[in-house]
Amino acid sequence: MLTLTRNIGETIRIGDDIEVHVVEVRGNTVRLGFKAPREVSIHREEVYEQIAAARRLAVRVAADAVGALTAALGGTRSATGTPKPADAGDTAAVSLA
User: Residues annotated as region Disordered (predicted)?
Assistant: First the structure.
């Protein structure tokens, strides 16, 4: 980790596109301003953790849905856990109700 000392009004650059400005220091609190391209996400750590948890849940739900649909269509899973489609001659009635 790089540790820097900056005063109010000073800037830190990250690469060519990101600027971190020290806006205010009050007691143990530092206010920072960020200038970055729109495609760069900037989040507080606790928000980032919530986003990451939601993504992990979405992947798990999607995998469960694929498994359920594969089973409903008569497919099986291979040894690696990936779904195998049902045989072309199989006809499976699927109820989504």
Answer: 74-97
